[in-house]
Every structure is written in C-alpha cells, then in structure tokens.
Amino acid sequence: MAEGFSILVVDDEPGVREFIRSHLTSHFPAARIALAKDGEEGFAAAKENPPDIILLDVQMPKLDGWAFCERLKKDPDLAHTPVLMMSGVHRDTSDRIRGLKQGADAYLYKPFEPDELLAQINVLRRVRKNEEALRQHQEHLQE
C-alpha cells in the first residue's frame, strides 16, 4: 500500500476530529484525511471516495456507529474497508464485542493514547494490504 493512503474520520465532536487529523497528519504526512460530523455524512463521504480506513465514533446523531458499520459491511463497494470503532461512552466488553460482531476490525476506548491510535491504524493498514493481495490472488486464480 502506498504511503498516500486515505482515512475517513467520522465523529460528532469537532475537537476529537481535529485532534485525530492533527495527530495523523504529523505521523502520516502523505495520508489523505477526510472528516465527517455524523454517520450519514460519513457514509455519503465513504460512498463518494472510498477510504482505505475508517475511524468511527459509536455514539453519534442521525446514524450511530453500530448502524454505520452494519450498513458499510453490507455494501459490496465498501465491505472490505477496515473500521476502527471508537467510544468514550460504550466502554464495556459487551460493547466492544458488539462492535466487532457488526463488522468493526478494531475497537478503541476514548480517551486513547495517540500512540495506540497510530498502532491500530498500522495494523489496519496491514489488514487492508493483505486482504487486497488475497483478492488479487483469487482473481488471478479464477482467470
């Protein structure tokens, strides 16, 4: 995966969106970072410009993270997009399990350590790269 990967940050708190953007920009200067203030706006942004990774808040107006993730994973164009679900409210093990069952690839509690966010993003980049290589290999075998 090229260094110029894209991340969509979907969070209803402007301060959180800006903190994440600032932190990611300083560590991944070539990354394209898009921001959305709620699930509906985020889903529309993902459909318009499919990101490599989505950072998704759970509790949001209009379309919460649970429903967003479920909708995303049912969409054939977006289903393979790795999702890091984040929440400062839903912090129980059962919440993390629910997020993972609905298709999230990782779950992070807020407030989080910036280095943990970076580590999770790097894991999701590897997941994305490996899944893409596997899909290409399967297509090659089918030919």
Give a summary of the structure in a few sentences.
The chain is an alpha/beta fold. It is built from five helices and five strands, in the order βαβαβαβαβα.
Helix residue percentage: 40-55%
- Low-pLDDT runs of 5+ residues are none
Largest sheet: 5 strands, parallel
Number of strands: 5
Q: What order do the helices and strands come in, and which of them pair?
A:
Layout: E1 6-10, H1 14-27, E2 32-36, H2 39-48, E3 53-57, H3 65-74, E4 83-87, H4 93-101, E5 106-109, H5 114-142
Parallel strand pairs: 1-2, 1-3, 3-4, 4-5
Walk me through this protein's architecture.
The chain is of the alpha/beta class and 143 residues long. 50% of the residues lie in helices and 17% in strands. The protein has helices at 14-27, 39-48, 65-74, 93-101, 114-142, and strands at residues 6-10, 32-36, 53-57, 83-87, 106-109. A five-stranded parallel beta sheet has the order 2-1-3-4-5, sandwiched between helices. The longest helix is centred in the last third of the chain and has 29 residues, at 114-142. It is globular and about 50 Å long. The mean pLDDT is 92.
